[in-house]
Amino acid sequence: MTTSFEPFLTLKEPLRIGLCPGAEYGPAKRWPVDRFRTVMDQLLSCSIVWVLLGTPEEALLAVPLLENFPGRVENHIGKTSLEELITIIKKLNLLLTNDTGSMHLAALFDIPTVAIFGSTDPKLTGPQGSIHRVLRHPVECSPCFLRTCPIDFRCMMGISPEEVVQAITETLMQ
Question: Is the pTM of this model over 0.85?
Answer without folding.
Answer: yes
